[in-house]
Write a structure and sequence with these properties.
Length: 334
């Protein structure tokens, strides 16, 4: 009995069951001796297959595959049970950016957590890595004047994409899946298949309804091709003086001005499809009420809508000339 009490005390000190750990290590050693160990490459393939069977999104599984195949490249046959804390820390040391190291740690930890669940390893070495602290900076957003200039420089074929991102905060990948049939200008809503494939109804502000109603096309995909978007984003980058297009610039802009207008984080986060905590920590940059009023102001335009036939024949159109508005920074354009 005293032996059992001694073992219990040792297990409490180690914060784990030493007997089960020993059994797991024996099992791994026996598998390796019998040639039945699992190489890290095989484990990655099993993980990806399991995620697809679990109906994870293609975007998620593709991203996971990209990271993990790079991690195991050149050592696919190395038994996953042989990876140590030092191996993980050595890999993370390749990257200077805390954000990049944090992303890598999350992806690698997913692999080893899966291996623990399958019984290929007894513990996840990533659990012992010192967690990476990432400095949170305020998101970059557009001023009302910049928003006007960005819209003016936007080809007509890209404008629905811009309107839904800039004035409704819809994610780029969500907009890429949208058809005009999802937009209801009568109810002033957009039915969006969200990031987690949960459908949500996003209300449209008056300026968004006005701009979308003026667009010459009302059927087919809302978003243009990726190559067209890339060319337009290069123009945006030049307008705001950035070396690269800021991630989620339009969504963060919409979130900031929506929160300034409604002063209700719960309501705005529901429209955006995330939590109030994420909204306030990552999406929100405070704006003044004066800028907020200018950003959302709808100014009637005397410009006639471009005929749909012209869009169909050219694919995309040159931006129209902006009507001067000395007191209003955001004008509604045709």
């Amino acid at each position: 009995m005293w032996l059992g009490m001694l073992m219990l005390r040792e297990c409490n000190a180690a914060s784990r069951c030493l007997i089960l750990s020993a059994v797991g290590q024996f099992k791994q050693a026996n598998m390796a001796t019998a040639g039945g160990y699992f190489g890290v490459g095989q484990c990655v393939e099993e993980l990806l297959k399991a995620k697809r069977v679990a109906n994870r999104t293609t975007r998620y599984t593709d991203s996971l595959a990209s990271y993990l195949k790079k991690f195991c490249s050149g050592r696919e046959t190395k038994p996953i049970c042989e990876f140590s804390l030092a191996d993980i820390e050595e890999w993370l040391a390749r990257y200077n950016s805390p954000y990049t190291r944090q992303t890598w740690l999350n992806r690698i930890s997913t692999l080893f957590s899966f291996a623990v669940r399958r019984g290929y390893v007894t513990s996840n070495p990533c659990d012992r890595v010192e967690r990476v602290t990432v400095d949170k900076k305020a998101p970059q957003i557009l001023t009302p004047a910049q928003a006007k200039e960005v819209y003016a420089a936007c080809p007509t074929i890209c404008r629905p994409y811009l309107v839904l991102a800039l004035y409704a905060g819809i994610r780029p990948e969500e907009t890429m899946r949208l058809n005009w049939g999802s937009i209801n200008l009568e109810t002033k809503t957009v039915a969006v298949e969200g990031k987690t494939r949960r459908r949500r109804l996003v209300p449209l502000e008056p300026i968004a309804v006005e701009l979308l109603s003026r667009h010459p096309l009302k059927s087919g995909p809302v978003s243009p091709s990726l190559s067209t978007l890339r060319r337009w984003k290069d123009t945006v980058r030049q307008i705001i003086g950035a070396s690269k297009f800021p991630q989620d610039l339009l969504r963060h802009t919409a979130a900031s001005y929506l929160l300034a207008k409604y002063e209700d984080a719960g309501k705005v986060s529901m429209w955006l499809g995330n939590s109030s905590k994420i909204l306030l920590a990552h999406y929100h940059n405070p704006v003044s009420q004066a800028d907020c009023a200018v950003f959302w102001k709808v100014q009637p335009s005397s410009l006639a809508p471009v005929p749909a036939a012209e869009v169909a024949s050219t694919g995309e159109l040159a931006p129209v000339e902006v009507i001067a508005a000395p007191t209003v920074a955001m004008a509604v354009l045709a």
